[in-house]
Design goal:
single chain, mainly alpha, Helix Hairpins, two-stranded antiparallel sheet
Amino acid sequence: MAKIKYTKNELKAQRDALTRFRRYLPTLLLKKQQLQLELRLLEGQIAAKRNEEEKARTDLAAWVKLFSEPFDFSPYIKVAEIKRSSGNIAGVTIPMFESLRFEEALPDLFETAAWVDSGIDLLRHLIRLRIERQVIEEQHRLLSDELRTTSQRVNLFEKVKIPECRENIRVIRIFMGDQLTAAVARSKIAKSKSVEKVRSA
């Protein structure tokens, strides 16, 4: 506990600090609840994207088994641009997925099998799902970090700062009360001594 002065100014400073902490704490608690809610929603979205990816992979595996000749899909599934924007949740700036654009490359219709177009679409869909999931996971990471910081602040206010201010106010009041009592006692003693001097003179 920090050393405090036993003065009226210190008492006022401690009362002001206590008022400030009590006023700020509900905001922190609200922010903590909002972050927890958003994290639960993001966890659901991540799980849904993983399930979609798994289904797309299963579809792809079943589909690939049907065709015997190998085919190089890499020129047709190159990502040209990922557009992101910024969002804000509980004061935290997070990335938002906007769109995804692949390089404009189409296989030669005369030299490739008819199933190649479907394969390209499926692979592009899988890549899109993965990128969307990664953006959501980044949102989750940023909000988790903020939740950790907010929880630490809530604990600091609830378990340290507010009790510390209360205790300081209590101690200063006791000290000032003792000083007042001592001053009254001293004045009574001084008064009785002066009365005795007057009587004996």
